[in-house]
Amino acid sequence: MRKSLFLITVLALSFLLFSCSKDNSTSPEQTSDVKGNWEIYSSQSSGGSLVYEIDAKYSLNESNGNVSGTADITYVHRSGSFGMVTIQVADNIAGTYDGTNISVILADSFTGYTFTYEGSWVTKGEVFEGVFTATGEDTTAVYNQSRLVIGN
Question: Is the pLDDT at 43 greater than 80, yes or no?
Fold first, then answer.
């Protein structure tokens, strides 16, 4: 009986020693607040007789304050004398994020247009509000109070 009790005790202690290790501690993976798919829903800006519309979709990644990813932007410029001009670009973006504010830019060398978005959190992890600017050779459209919203 003593021998059986001794063996059970040795086995129990061995099990405890090998199952508890300093290397078993795992820390949760850090996830960025801005990682994911974002969209600026169609919004308009007017400047005199000109009307500008934009639809922008972003796929963002962020590491140590540096934002990267891609953007798919459709920009429509309407004018009474020129009709309608549509510019569609899909390219890489770059930017910064400081925990509160985000700034991203897409510079398209083919069309000559630059698209920027600068905003701050309205609802952290869900909605930024800021300014979207489309700048081309002969035009600049500024969209104040543009909301960048997390999507699918």
Answer: no
